[in-house]
Amino acid sequence: MSTLISAMISWAERTPIPVISSSFSTAGAKGAIICAIRASRSATSAASVSMRRNMIAQMKAWWSSKWPANA
Question: Which pLDDT band holds residue 33 (cuts at 50, 70, 90)?
Answer without folding.
Answer: confident
